[in-house]
Structure prediction request, 90 residues.
Amino acid sequence: MLTNYNTIGIVAHDAGSANIIVEYVKKFKNKLFLINVTGPAKNIFNANKISFELNQSFKTIVDKSDFIISGTSAKSVVDHKIRILAIKNN
Prediction:
C-alpha cells in the first residue's frame, strides 16, 4: 500500500491505531513520515523510538504528504480533523 508514496502523513491519538501504524513505519523506513501524535499514541511512538519528523502541524502534513494515515479515535477529534483538512485541500 505505501510503496507508491514517498512522504506519508500520520495523525493518531488512540493506542489501538498507533500500534498498527507503528508497524507500517517500521516496515517502510525508507519513506519520509510527517507525524502528529497525541495522547496514548505519542507514548507508543516514543516507546518504539519512532522519531521521523514528529510534531508536524496539520497544515504541513496535508501540504507535503502524498498519503495520510489517521486513527479513528472515539475520544479525540485530531484524527477526524486531519481527514477534513485533507479533503478540503484535495
